[in-house]
Amino acid sequence: MKITRPTLIIDEVKCRANIEVMAQKANNSNTELIPHFKTHQSKEIGEWFKDYGVSKITVSSVKMAEYFAEAGWNDIYIAFPCNVLEVESINRLADKISLTLLFSNVVAIELLSDQLTSKVNARIEIDTGSDRSGFKNNNFEGIDSAINLINESELINLIGFYSHAGQSYKARNAKEINAVFDDMKSQLLVLNKKYELPISCGDTPCCSVVTHFDEFESIHPGNFAFYDVMQAQIGSCRFDQIGIALATPVVDVNHVTNEIVVHGGGVHLSKDEMIESKEVSYGKIVKFNKEGWGDPLEGCHVKSLSQEHGVVKATVEVCNSVKVGDILGILPVHSCMTADCMGYYYDLSGNIMSHLKSSY
Amino acid sequence: MKITRPTLIIDEVKCRANIEVMAQKANNSNTELIPHFKTHQSKEIGEWFKDYGVSKITVSSVKMAEYFAEAGWNDIYIAFPCNVLEVESINRLADKISLTLLFSNVVAIELLSDQLTSKVNARIEIDTGSDRSGFKNNNFEGIDSAINLINESELINLIGFYSHAGQSYKARNAKEINAVFDDMKSQLLVLNKKYELPISCGDTPCCSVVTHFDEFESIHPGNFAFYDVMQAQIGSCRFDQIGIALATPVVDVNHVTNEIVVHGGGVHLSKDEMIESKEVSYGKIVKFNKEGWGDPLEGCHVKSLSQEHGVVKATVEVCNSVKVGDILGILPVHSCMTADCMGYYYDLSGNIMSHLKSSY
Fold first, then answer.
1. Nearest to B308 among A61, A272, A308 (CB)
2. From CA A62, how far away is CA A54, in angstroms rounded?
3. Residue A114, Cβ neighbours under 10 Å: how many?
4. Domains of chain A by start residue, with CATH
5. Cβ separation of A251 and B133 shorter than 8 Å?
6. SS3 state at A73
7. CB-based contact (8 Å) between A273 and chain B?
8. Contact status, residue A303 vs residue A276, Cβ threshold 8 Å
9. Residue numbers in B near A270 (CB within 8 A)
10. pLDDT, mean over chain B
11. ∠ CA(A196), CA(A197), CA(A202), 5° rounding?
């Protein structure tokens, strides 16, 4: 494949290995892996998961549920606070497939139950520390109200509690990730015992590092299929497990500043950033080879992004080895966002794979 | 129009007023407005500019040039360091339309001139302080080499110098913006006199605040058509000149923390951020009304974004006035990036307008 423009490359072997590890681990705990498809948003990549026993999926919007329902998935969980304005689409979907919604407050339950025409499953969202949405685990008054409202509705079937422990993204090693997981688990187990309802969780750091999920009915990670530089920094993965890289044409090399300008900007990578050695980074640099790409180049990172430009801070050696017209690879800080920006993928053999963004 | 999902709304009246002001100002200076279409990337919105005398346009990639060439524009300037890997596309385009390329180094000129089959125009990029790409204005050796290489090529016609004074984005008022402009102008005038070649520039802060461009052959701003919260902070515009807003469904309201969760995340707004009153902000909050939307709500901003969630920090009053199922508007920090994320627009009458992203 001849690359001339910013192009998102996927290494199927690495991604399948990531999926297999997670599926095996869930299986060992007698827990169901219901992977989050918001990371890849691709009907072709979605098919890979079937080879590892996956039959139910998680998404983050009604639109994404519609896309994957059309691709043949018939058991879909929308792990985003129920958007009651989309009740018509929800009814259409629930009429065709097994649909599970997430409720983070009583108002949405009240509004939705008035307008539902088809049966849906429901999970109640518990905020175990991400401070984004959901009931606190000790808000029994709120949880009781939610359960009562759901039970009053003939069309909503409560199937459990769900928590996305987004606080795990602040962890930086396995010990800290395990501490987040243990705290989340103990919070959810209180509810599991009190209400006799299953519990589920979903963040990639916990699902990657923790080895046993026996108390959980299901796990819903997404990012693990691709991983990225942020997940490597957190401690969820090694660099050689990262399954996507943005190929970018080199358009300028500055031997005074040791900076390389590539065609690969915020519209390609997204502006998600991280801090490494006190410097802002938008990604690590790799070189492509016959097998895919190599390890990140020591001392190199994307230091700034504009709409179409990426500026790479490089070492003298790397600068001397790169010239205008070459291609450099960038391992993204946040692969879900990069995939969403790009809207399609090429595998290492040059086959194109679609993304929800390229389907409308 | 019934909004149920994150939807990008454009106020045509505000955008046309922004375009008219810029066109009038360029006209007063006998300078040509060659607007940058990377902001809207829309063939329909592109048509509006023709009503203000625009016949040439600026873009930031060969792909964007192809899109607008197909839409009928026949004089296009790619204001991005020439990507020699795209020579085949460049030749195809240059065969059909008047194409101008930007050269930021001699290597690209050498490589391209070997493979060119059609005539192109060229500008030489001067780095007047943005520290991204281009020749420093006192790098006469480099500039001389570039000019000689261009003059040796039968197919490349040198038409001037170009500088994007991206350093103006660090300014915070008209005085600071004018200082950036004056410095850029004096740097470019050295070259203008030495080489007897026209000069051009393009950043929106300078083009918005400065009143006279008599020394410049052309100006190439893009963002000014929409403006955004960042431009308001810099001092380029007023809030009531911002021409796009992201409509987002409210999915949770937390009266303990005074936070509102909306369906509108990094995949909709982009992760471009700014600091205001020492807090990170991803946008200002507005309410929609019959005429469009009102002024930003005091004391409210988007404090965090995940892939699909936006968390709005609000006042008690605003929190009490908003409920699950409502729609809130977000004025973006960076409108070009938000438009690129969304991939299409609706005007206030509900007509859809396309974007390059939705065309492939």
1. A61
2. 20
3. 10
4. 12-225 (3.20.20.10), 239-359 (2.40.37.20)
5. yes
6. coil
7. yes
8. no
9. 266, 270-271
10. 97
11. 145
